[in-house]
Sequence to fold (540 residues):
Amino acid sequence: MTWKEYLFALLLTDGIVAAIIFVIFLIQNILPTANLGLKGLSVDLAFNNAISFITNTDLQHYAGDQQLSILSQMIGVTFPMFIAPASAMAAGFAFIRAFIRKNFGLGNFYVDFIRITITLLLPVAFISSLLLMFWGVPQTLNSSVTIGRTLEGYKQTFTIGPVASLESIKMLGHNGGGFFGSNSAHPFENPSGFTNIYEVFLILIIPLSFPIAYGKLVGRGRGVAILIAMIIGLGTMFTLALITRSGPTGLETRFGSFGSLLFNVISIATNTGAVNSALTGMSPNAVTSLFLGMFVQAIPGAAGTGMMTMIVYVLLTLFIVGLMVGKTPEYMSMKISPRDIKLAVFIFLVHPALILIPTVIAFTTGNAQAILDNDVQGEKVTHLGYTKTLYEYTSAAANNGSDYFGTSANTPFWNWSTGLVMLLGRFVPLGLMLAIAGSFTAKDRKEVIEPIKTEGPLFISVLVIMTFLLTALTFFPFLVIGPLSM
Amino acid sequence: MTYVDPIVQITVLFGGSLGAAILFGLYIARMISFEMRPLEKPLAKIENGFFRLI
Fold:
């Protein structure tokens, strides 16, 4: 397939699935497994949900345990949790193929998609589901269970359902949308400290395996350079988060401050977006580190897209370093053309545009103030209020899914605006990255040593510094008036 | 939860993740370059079944 055909196939597949789950959310009340009194979702919320799950964001403006039927949870939520990461990983496959050798081709989307789903995601998710069930996560088609009597003499009813199957792919595929409103803080999603570590382990496997695959195919040094750059970025985020102690308010006592930070930082750095504690319990430094992960999107980033984004940073780094030393930018002995650089810059700039423009619109139209409640003192919005709004759009644009607002953002403005941001934040960069892949797959490889080596400690240092520098130059003023001033 | 030292948590987590990532990475590399994967025959049969389905 050409890059255009590959992109079209990806958009078509995701579009069909999004349309199906949109309808399911709308009419869930007349479909099987709907509880008595359960309503179909409003059009704006169904749109937001469908886009949210197909873009791997899983931003949830609803409480799953109260507003969705079992069928909606299984087909509307769990099913796209396989489709969305498989699409992104397929795009990642095509992107890597562009660098293997000239005219190797980008592959066929449908073949990649099926192979990833059937031979990678499904088996690992199945085994993980069994393990999670063994460790106490429920898996049943019953929607509730009533247990004995409480100390006060009442019977207590718990919402349950097919949680283990959702939980495993939620982590493995960097989805992040929980079965319950409180996500991984709920004991049925994350029963113990051990499952907490296991779920973080599931999150990390695929993003870290992409640079290894890349190294195997285009040179070990290049893959290791990208892997180390990712780990340095993640380590920086985690260290920043640990500098000031978070909590105890809002944190889950079963996991403590460290367990909460470990889970949240890694979940958000990989654009999973699952959380095991309230973001309001996080220290300003921890919130800044979470922003950093969503701004960069490549330390290590989500399945497929993290790796692609990091290579875009490599191209930008080579271009800037090439300008400094007066060399024509080349990657793997292929000339980086002005068009490639324009595409890379556009990928980089789409992200801040999708975050900052809607944030301004939300404030100027009064929609942000309307749901900030206590964060508005008279006419003045607090730094926390601004942070929450900025976080909402950052999370949507990065296809992350964690947020401060939760169900309070279930208003037409927030549902439509974040839906559009998720849509553009997903498919515009993905399309541009495939365009870069299309360009590189047809390039001649020269038989000379590349002018700037793209492996080794020096290049890793330059790549890390350049990535943070570009991000800081773009976003630092907004961090200063947001989390750093809280 | 019984208390587990944070350094032990980090070591186990990153050691395990990197170990698993190497195995997955090599498998993914084979998928990307269309090389033979472990269990290629049974996997191909399952995949072909899905291709026929769609």
Observations:
- Chain A has 16 helices and six strands.
- Residues 149 and 155 of chain A are 4 Å apart (CA to CA).
